[in-house]
Amino acid sequence: MRIFSIGSLNIDYFYSMSHFVRAGETLSSAKLDILPGGKGLNQAVALIRAGAQVVPCGLIGEDGEMLLSVLDTVGAKNSRIEKRDMPSGHAIIQVDPAGQNGIIVFHGANFAYDEAYFRKVLADAAEGDAVLLQNEINDVGLCMNIAKEKGMRVVFNPSPFDDNIFDLPLERVDLFVCNEIEGAALTGKTDPEEILAALNEKYPDADALLTLGGAGAVYRDKTGIYRHGVFEVDVVDTTGAGDTFTGFFLAAMNESGDPAGALRTASAASAIVVSRIGAALSIPAAEEVKEFLQ
C-alpha cells in the first residue's frame, strides 16, 4: 500500500521563551531556530523514516527550498511538491522551559489547493492505497471525495480543529487520528472510552486512533481496543510528537497489521522526538526506534 501524504509544509520559527507572551506584554526570546515543519511535511517525513511507501504531496512558495531539501535528505521518492507564486506557509512557535508550545500559523501556499492538483497527484493511485490528510490545507473534503472515487483509504487527522470540520464528508473517513481534545470536539465526550464509542456510533465504518498525551494512546478497530502508555524521557519540545506517532503507527500497521506492536513502535518514535527540539528534522529513523525499544 502506498500512502499519499497531502498536507501543509511550513517554515517554523521557534522562539525560546521564559513563558508564553501575555496580552500587552513584550518579551525577548533567548533563542531563535528556523526549521522545516507543517503537519503534512512532518507526517510525510515520519512515514519515510519509518520505512513506508510514501508519495509526498504539497504546495510551497518560492521561499520553500528548505522544505524540499528536507525531503531530499530523508530519501523521499516520487515527491509531488509544487511551487506557487505566494509565500510558503509558516508558523511562529513559542517554546517554554517545560517544552510546551504555543503556535501561530500563516497558511500561505497551504491554502492554494484545487481540484486539478488533487486529481493530478492522485492520478496513478490504486484501490487499496491510502491518502493521509490533516486540516491545515483547504478543500480537504474535495480530496476525500476524489480519493474515494479511486477506492483509496482515507486517513484523517482533524488538526487543527475548527467548526468547518463538520462540513467535511466525514463518512468517507476510514481512520480518524485524533488527540483527546480533537476527539472531544468531534464527539462531545471527554472520557477516552466514551470518545471511541461515540466515534464508532457516528462513523461505524471507521477505525479510530486516539492519542492521550502522558496517558499514552488507544486504538479501536473491528477486532478490539488496544492501548499503550508512554516511554519516560526528558521533554525538550513536544512539537511534531503527534505527527511522528501518526506516521510510525501507519507504517507499522501497513507492515504488520498488529495494532499492539504499531502502538508500541509509534510511542517509542514520539518519545525520541519530544527529547529534541524541532519537528521534521527531529524525527528518528526506524533503526533508531528499534534500538530505543531494545
Structural account:
Helices cover 33% and strands 25% of the residues. It has nine helices and 13 strands. The protein has helices at residues 39-50, 65-73, 115-121, 140-149, 180-187, 192-202, 241-256, 259-274, 286-293; strands at residues 2-6, 10-16, 31-37, 53-60, 80-83, 89-95, 101-106, 130-134, 153-157, 175-179, 207-211, 217-221, 224-228. The strands form two sheets. A nine-stranded mixed beta sheet has the order 5-4-1-8-9-10-11-12-13, sandwiched between helices. A four-stranded mixed beta sheet has the order 3-2-6-7. Helix 5 (180-187) packs across helix 6 (192-202), helix 7 runs antiparallel to helix 8 (259-274) and helix 8 (259-274) crosses helix 9. It is globular, with a radius of gyration of 18 Å. 47% of the residues are buried.
Quick description:
The chain has 294 residues and is of the alpha/beta class.
Strand count: 13
Shape: globular
Percent range of helical residues: 25-40%
Task: Give the class from helix and strand content and strand pairing.
Answer: alpha/beta
